[in-house]
Amino acid sequence: MMPMTPDDHRSVPRARVVAALRRAGGHAGTALATVVLGALAALGGTEPQEFLLIDARLEVSPIWLVEIDRATLAHRTPDGWTNRTLDDCIGIMSPERIRRWNASAWLMLNDGQMLPGGAARHASPPDAAPETVMWEHRTLGLMAVPLDRIASVTFDTDTVPPRPTASDVVLLTNGDRLEGFVTSLSDPLMIEVDGAAGAVAVTIDRVAAVAIVAPARAPDGTRVWLNDGTVIDVEDVLVADDGSVRVSGVPFVVEGSEARIDLVRLRGVLFRPGRMTPLAALRPTRIDGPPTRYTIPSPTIEDPLVALGVADIRFDGPVTVRYPLDATMRRFATEVELPLVAREWGDCEVIIRDDDREVFRTRLTGERPTATINVELRGSELTVEISEGRYGPIQDRVVLRRAMLTSS
């Protein structure tokens, strides 16, 4: 018998290998999986990617993703192979950070979808809405986006879009502002300026950002995050065991509604956005501190681009922050951490209250800098309190990692 060459190994269908490993099962199957899948990767195959799985109880587990179909998610853990129904999964997120692609422009929709790319010089399709923006996305292709779905456009990536008032706002590259009603985002941009007769034309090279008055919408379908900063709602996300990802039901795409990407580009999937609310998405109703503290800083969002929207939130204590809860928010979960820079003198208590009912308390120190919170809620207000410890208000800085609430 002739010895197998590396090319012979690569010719073995990965699906057959995965199926055999699943049949092996248990710890023996896990050990075999680690060896064989590692060998496949070394020989040019595709090794499962690492993700964090968030289940319906907001418990977070590291996994190696293998497959996703329309009903189940297959993955392996140190304990073996597992199939989970999607009904039992909130979502998955990669530990790899999202790096914004250096696009010429960014389009943000009124439901939070983000599309890096640029305005396209194409005529609108015959069936497009009367006011449509033609947009070119490097992965999804040419898109026809209705103007009434757009919340903002950033043409200068160093510029933060202005907040719309009662009118749309156009921020020019020289710092000037135009307020009124934007009728076209093509080149030139057209805006009916408040108090002026007729429309004003502005060439796109003079525009830094545009904010448009658009009623907020809830996400629709399955939300996907890519490594370039794209956030898009689709009908289905299917992950094959060869490391390819197929998304279907992509909105606004002119030619077809499917796209294929490599698994290494996937940063997160929220299977049903309505089931989870990031704490970072809520605006505090009240922020208090001790009377001796002249300035009470608001909580700081550390990375707004993170997948699933579960950005880390920094609290500089001592401070008490209150958040509103609606009737569907019935569980709160997060990892609390005394960051490395605060572990020499940091010593504080983290107290969580549901209305006035204390549901969690822990002390963080340099020797014990982390804790896991996962508590049931029944009230209308969530309170996060950081109180000083034995060294007083010195380095009492706490970060809430992946803070989130379930929505029934």
Please count the beta strands (DSSP E, at least 2 residues each).
32
Mean pLDDT: 85
What is the SS-derived class? mainly beta
Helix content: under 10%
Main sheet attributes: strand count, strand direction, barrel closure = 10 strands, antiparallel
- Total domain units: 3
Percent strand: over 45%
**Which blocks of ≥5 consecutive residues have pLDDT under 50?**
1-17, 20-45
Strand order of the largest sheet: 9-8-7-6-10-15-11-12-13-14
Q: What is the global morphology?
A: globular
Count of runs of 4 or more consecutive helical residues: 3
State Rg.
25 Å
Distance between the termini: 61 Å
Give your account of this protein's structure.
Helix content is 8%, strand content 46%. The protein is mostly beta strands and 408 residues long. The chain folds into 3 domains: 6-93, no CATH class; 98-271, no CATH class; 276-407, NPCBM/NEW2 domain (Jelly Rolls), CATH 2.60.120. The strands form 5 sheets. Strands 9-8-7-6-10-15-11-12-13-14 form a 10-stranded antiparallel beta sheet, with no helix packed on it. The chain has an 8-stranded antiparallel beta sheet with strand order 4-3-2-1-5-21-16-17. Strand 1 and strand 2 form a beta hairpin.
Features:
eight-stranded antiparallel β-sheet; 3 domains; single chain; ten-stranded antiparallel β-sheet; 408 residues; globular; mainly beta; Jelly Rolls
Helix and strand arrangement:
Blueprint lengths: L5 H6 L2 H11 L1 H17 L6 E7 L4 E9 L3 E6 L2 E6 L3 E5 L11 E5 L4 E6 L12 E6 L3 E6 L3 E5 L13 E5 L4 E8 L4 E5 L5 E4 L4 E5 L10 E5 L4 E4 L1 E4 L4 E5 L9 E5 L3 E5 L5 E3 L7 E3 L11 E2 L11 E4 L2 E6 L4 E9 L9 E8 L2 E9 L4 E7 L4 E8 L8 E11 L1
Antiparallel strand pairs: 1-2, 1-5, 2-3, 3-4, 5-21, 6-7, 6-10, 7-8, 8-9, 10-15, 11-12, 11-15, 12-13, 13-14, 16-17, 16-21, 18-19, 19-20, 22-32, 23-26, 24-25, 25-32, 26-31, 27-30, 27-32, 28-29, 28-31
